[in-house]
Amino acid sequence: MNAVTIHVDEQVYSYFQESARTSQRSTSDLVREAMAEHHDRLKRTRQLSLRDAPAPVSVGAVLQSWRGRTDLLDDYFERE
Fold first, then answer.
1. Residue 1 is assigned to a structural domain of this protein
2. Residue 31 resides in a domain
3. Residue 8: which of 39, 30, 37, 24 has the closest Cα?
4. pTM above 0.70, yes or no
5. Residue 80 CA, distance from chain mean position
6. CA–CA separation, 43 and 24 (whole Å)
């Protein structure tokens, strides 16, 4: 295991200390756990294909699925 030195806001550190006290764990255990969860979340996100990834918040629902290149050209040239 490697030692890490970080600088955090006093408010954040106080939060971790209080959480550690109430859960009867050390502050370093909580920080390690938070770092591991962050790492796992990034790993899962990177493993998703574009098809499986959640849609960006700004996009909304798909109105009509795309069936192929001709659909794209029809939409582009406004053909029916």
1. no
2. yes
3. 30
4. no
5. 40
6. 29
